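Q: Structure tokens for this one, please.
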Amino acid sequence: MPTPERPKLYVEGKDDIHAIRNLLVRNGINLPIRKQPVGDVAPSVPELQETNGKKKLLDTIKTAVPVSSDRPVGFVLDADDRPQDRWSAVRARLREFELDPPNDIPADGYITDVEKYMTRVGVWLMPDNRQKGALEKFLMDLINPDDYLLPLAESSTNEAHEKGAQFPAAKHSKAVLHTWLAWQQTPGRPYGSAINQQIFRHDSPTASAFVQWYKRLFSSPDQC
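A: Here is the predicted structure, written as tokens:
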């Protein structure tokens, strides 16, 4: 008997996959891992799949929704500097499925049923469907508010930029976060590993909101 096709959660890249997977695991949600035995992970549990960039993810919306009959499908992408423009680009693609998404993405993430294809579709804009930013801003919100190293990493990064560090302004948050990670007990852990090792919190308000969006989108007895 063929293995049933899994629901999909599409993300931009590998960092997103590892961060999201480890965050969900720390919140008690098991996920399949490619090229490894899935064990007792139910077929209803989604597979995380990278699209290798924002443009490809937006294009994937057009193709992934029609083939997801009877299976939810989700999309996680960065808001970057213009959250409203990013949502407008997503909204334009969703309207092709006879949907009428709101002008502003809901603060708790967008989820709707697509009757034409008998599927449920969800969208989350990193970091929190409101702010400018990307995965790194989401992860910063998982750092303890009393952490004294993050402001130091911010000021050090700013000083380095003033003295000739060549990272672009769009990558400022990434530079700050990697500086902060370099000062942990095990310096320079990748995002997913840092979540797994509890360097990041798993239950901050931002993390909890994302997990609740995920559960609503991919709700099943195995995940609730």
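A few notes: The chain has eight helices and five strands. The CA atoms of residues 142 and 203 lie 8 Å apart.
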